[in-house]
Amino acid sequence: MSDFHPDRIVVPQGHFIGGRHVVPGQAARLEVQRPSDAVRYADVVVGDAALVDEAVQNAWQAWRGSDWATCPPRDRAKILRRWADLVEADVATLAPMEAVGSTRTLRDMTGWDVPFAAEALRFFAEYADKLGGEVAATRQDTLGLVISEPYGVVGAITPWNQPLVMVSWKVGAALAAGNAIVLKPSELTPFTAVRLAELAVQAGVPAGIFNVVQGDGLVTGDALTRHPKISKMTFTGSTRTGAAIMAACAQAGPKPVTLELGGKSPQIVFDDVRDLDRLAGLIAGAITINAGQVCVAGSRLIVHERVADALAERLAARFADYRPGATWDPEATLSPIINAGQAARIEDIVARSRRDGAIVRAGGGCYEDRAGAYYRPTLLANVDSDTAAVREEIFGPVLTLQTFREEEEALALAAHEDYGLAAGIHTADLGRALRAMRRVAAGTVWINRYGRTADFVIPTGGYGRSGIGKDLGRQAVEANLRQKSVLIDFAS
What we know:
Elements: E1 15-17, E2 20-22, E3 29-33, E4 40-45, H1 49-65, H2 73-89, H3 91-101, H4 106-125, E5 133-136, E6 142-150, E7 153-157, H5 163-176, E8 180-184, H6 191-203, E9 210-212, H7 217-226, E10 232-236, H8 239-252, E11 257-260, E12 266-269, H9 276-288, E13 300-304, H10 305-321, H11 340-355, E14 359-362, E15 378-381, H12 388-391, E16 398-404, H13 407-414, E17 419-420, E18 422-426, H14 430-439, E19 444-447, E20 463-464, E21 467-468, H15 473-478, E22 481-489
Parallel strand pairs: 7-8, 7-10, 8-9, 10-11, 12-13, 12-18, 13-16, 15-16, 18-19
Antiparallel strand pairs: 1-2, 3-4, 5-6, 6-22, 11-21, 14-15, 17-20
Helix pairs in contact: 1-7, 2-4, 2-6, 3-4, 4-5, 9-10
């Protein structure tokens, strides 16, 4: 995309309801900035409670009036596969639109996010006819059935850090199960969700089955969560917001929720690792991907004292090599922070940690003389479990370093009182790896690697305050189905 220029990107305006764009004349608006240079490039129209009600009622009528939930499941799958093909073919529109307004680089969007989102839709499509229910073991003169049915209208709220991918996870699973969905994307990255909805209608998804409402969490998100015709909510974002959504679902329902929330994921390194150079690259990548703005970022390094200094030196050298730059800069290797407020929050946590004795072994602070906010990849040593950078989710490229002598000590350090989203274990000893895997309280454990592959069958989700339920995998589709028990007496 050599002709890319950020000022030439055109974004869709307003909401997408009933298969058409809706732009209310008197609605409040929020400024949307490019993270790369802090330039205001668009506004988002805030959907109030009345607008949310219009979207949900539209979805409800479409779900009841179309055959989306009742058609042969293979027909639903065919439409979802067509949608995936259209998404993949639309890379020249989707990739620049998301790169200009998010922290995802144009290179990442074309090489990973767009193809990954399309393949996620294909994965969910294949589950459309494979989760119908089961025959229960009952008396010989009765027939017991457990039938899986869609909820109706699902509400979804997606985050700003990987907008396109997160929409494919939430919407793909809900539609494959036969639901309609009303989505509120983050107000910081709101536009590619509308483009996905346009493509869904082009693929044959009935108008109104996939609606997008724009706005913030306090107004739009809360109205969506509390709407009586929303039968289930799914959310990815901070633990604090997830707790608020869960409380609202209890008050307005109760209704089930799927929550993928925050993390402080440990990476345990034992002294039998064989290639410190390779390992340093893997660990650096786990904390600098998207500038650390991913919920599964490997932010707590727990390393055996015999290899700690050597590994720290290699990490410091790698951190120094990162080149910050705009998401459309092909030479850049470090993304911007989403906005100045988040960068200030990162700096506050680092500053509090330093006041409590943390030592900066690499990085620290924002890069100077840049319009956007770019934070230096940072390594903090001399920390303990009470240090702010160890305790709090940072959502930035900040890695803490703790050392251990014995396996039990490493596992104790890996435990976190709040979070249990992901973990990494690095060792040449298979028995030790499996022991640690069993002991670490995390929804995902990577051994001798860190990060997802395109294995959509492996679900993602956390323990503790890192969430409830799963995205991806069979489990994500099952979470969008409810069960009806049927007992037939045929003795007479």
